[in-house]
User: Fold this.
Amino acid sequence: MVFDISVAMTWILFLALFPMAFFWLRRAWRIMVKRDFSEVAIKRGEPPADAARWAPYEMTINLVAGIVVVFVILGVVSGSLEYEVWSAIAGSTIWCKFFASFALSRHAHLQTGKKTA
Assistant:
């Protein structure tokens, strides 16, 4: 095996899965067990006024993404997933998690800008 840029990028992607899984599962744990809603649907560093309403959605997004990444890590370590498969699963999971969290934060903050009559 020759060490080139593709091998380096593969290792970077694989090693980055560990802290991502940790932070996502920790965030789901904080929301589900500790009832800490300070990281729910954050926009500009602030959670929405009714963060408890959006907590189940944020918890689900983080929990599903974290579990998928853990299974990818276990599949790579055990040798049961080929490179194309695990990199596709990991990449899709990362992007879907970021888009879903972004959409949830924007949707949760829509109502705070509106004035009630």
